[in-house]
Amino acid sequence: MHGMMMTQPLSIIEILRYAAGAHPGGEIVSVRTEGDIHRETYAEAFGRAAQLAHGLEGLGVGEGDRVATLAWNGYRHFELYYGVSGMGAVCHTINPRLSAEQMLYIIRHADDRVLCFDVTFTPLIEGLAEHLPEDLVLVAMTDRAHMPDSKLELLCYEELLEGQPDTYDWPELDEEAAAALCYTSGTTGNPKGALYSHRSTVLHAFSVAVALSKSLKEGGRVLPVVPLFHVNAWGLPYAAPLTGASLIMPGPKLDGPSLFELMDGEKVTSAWGVPTVWLGLRAEIDARGRNPEGFGHVVVGGSAAPRSMIEGFEKSGVDVCHAWGMTEMSPVGTHGLLSEPMRELPFDAQIDLKSKQGRRLFGVELKIVDEGGQPLPHDGRAAGELFVRGNGVISGYFNNAEASAAAFDDEGWFGTGDVASIDDKGFLVIQDRTKDLIKSGGEWISSIDLENIVIAHPKVASCAVIAVPHPKWDERPLLVVVPEGGEKPTLPEVHEMLLEHVARWQLPDDMVFVEELPLTATGKVSKLTLRDRFGDHALPDVG
Ligand code: ADP
Fold this sequence. Notes:
Blueprint: H1 12-22, E1 27-31, E2 37-41, H2 42-58, E3 66-70, H3 75-86, E4 90-93, H4 100-110, E5 112-117, H5 122-128, E6 137-140, E7 155-156, H6 157-161, E8 178-183, E9 193-197, H7 198-211, E10 221-224, H8 236-243, E11 246-249, H9 256-266, E12 270-273, H10 275-288, E13 297-300, H11 307-315, E14 319-322, E15 324-325, E16 332-335, H12 340-343, H13 347-355, E17 359-360, E18 364-369, E19 384-390, H14 401-407, E20 414-422, E21 428-433, E22 438-440, E23 443-445, H15 447-454, E24 460-470, E25 474-483, H16 491-499, E26 510-513, H17 527-534
Parallel strand pairs: 1-11, 3-4, 3-5, 4-8, 5-6, 6-7, 10-11, 10-12, 12-13, 13-14, 25-26
Antiparallel strand pairs: 1-2, 8-9, 15-16, 16-17, 18-19, 19-20, 20-21, 22-23, 24-25
Helix pairs in contact: 1-2, 1-3, 1-8, 2-3, 7-8, 9-10, 11-13
The structure holds adenosine-5'-diphosphate (ADP).
C-alpha cells in the first residue's frame, strides 16, 4: 500500500527560495577580489541567481550543460551554485590548485560550455588559453570597472546579470538530474568526476544541518575556509541557507592574520576547514592572546586533526568537531560532536573522543572488511578497509567505466581507500590511507598515529611519516619534520615522546628536516611527493 502524500522532487533551488522567504536575516558576507567587503541577503542572492540563469540562457546554456567555475569563496560563486543547478545545468567546480595539465583534462572531460573565473585567475586562464576548447565562453566574475586587461575574449559577470529579470521560471527537474560535478584531485592517474544529483545534494544538506546544528542555525555566522571549488565546501553552501545561518566568505586570503581579522570583524561563530589552515589561525590566536570575538566552534576535516590542535582549541573555549569524508561522499561521512553524557567525561577522555573521526551522518552506512572482504566487528580494535554506501555516495564516476568498475565491492559498497576501525559507540578512527600505511615485517604502522604524536613536540611545526623501502622489513617509517623556530628536535627526543604511546618497533628509523611540507591541491600533505623525494633515503641499520 502506498502512502497518500504529495511528492515534490527534491531540488537545490528550493533551498535558496526557502532561505529567501524564511530567513530574511541570513546574509552572505564576502571578501571580494576587488578588495572590499560585500554583503547580500539570501533574498538578494535568489534574485541574482535568477538573473544569472537568464544570462546563461542567453549564452545558449541548456539543461545538462556544464558550467565551470574557477573561483574563491564569495557571493558570485554561491550564485553560480544555485543559478546553474536551478536552471537544470551542471555546476562544475574546478580546483585552481590542480596542475595545468589536470585542469585541461577535466575541462575537456566535463565538456564545459562556459567557464566563470575570479579575476585573480586571469594569468592562469591566459596560460591555458591556447589549449582550451575554442567554443568555451569565458566569464570574468567582476564588474566592468574591474575587468582584467587581457587579450582574451572575456564576458563580464555583472554585465551578464544586468537588466535581467530577478525572477526565473525555475524548471521542475527530475530529482535525480545531475546538478554539480567535482573531480577528485587524482594523486594517481587522471582526476575522476563525482556527479551529484539534486536529490543527493538536498539529502546531504539535511544530514549536515542535523549533525552540525551547533553551527548551523539562525543567527549562526559560519566561515567556510573549506573551498567552494572542492567538495562543495562540505555542503555548507546548501546547509547554511537551509538553516538560516549566514555565510562569511573569506575570498583568497587564508593566512592566520587575515582570517583572524575577518572573523573578529564579522563575529564569526563557527569556522570550517582543513588542519593546515588552523595551524595559521592558532598561531595568530596565540600571538594576540585571545580568540576572535564570538568564535566558539571549529569543524576540522580533510585530513586527521592532531590531538594537540584539538586540545589547543578546546582549552581556549572553542568546541572542536572532527569530521571525515571524501569527494565521492558529497562529502561529509562522519562528525565528531559529542552527546550530552560524553560532555560530562573528564577533559582528557573528551579529547580522546574528539581525536576520533566521529559518528556517521544519517544516510551514510559504514563497514570495515579484512583482506578477503569479510566484515570486521565494530569493537574499536579490528581495522580494515572502509566501505560506505548511502544517498550521498556516488554510484559511479562520470564517464569513466574503468574507474567505476574498480570502485565498488560485490555488494555495491564504495571502497574509500581508507583503513579504519569503528568502536561499539559508532566512533570511526581513520588509521591511514591504504597507500600510506607502512608495512614493516608483515605488520602495519599507521603514519597518522605517529604524526599526531610528533606534531605536539615543541620543536616541531609540522611533520609527516612516509614508508621507505627496507631490505629486511619491506618498509620502515621515515619522519619528515619542519622544525619550529631555530631549534631542531633530536631523534632520541622524538622516540622518547613516541614510546609513551606506540611500540618500539613502530618508531621511525630516521628523521629528515625540510623547510615546508609539499601540499596537494586540496591542502593535504602530499605523501607522494615526499616518497618521490625521500624514497632512496638510506636508513641507519637498526636491525
Ligand atoms: P582528494 O584529496 O583526493 O580530492 P578528498 O578531499 O575527497 O580527496 O579526500 C578524502 C580523503 O581525505 C579521505 O579518504 C581520507 O583519507 C582523508 N580524510 C578526510 N577527512 C579526514 C579526517 N578527518 N581524518 C583523516 N583523514 C581524512
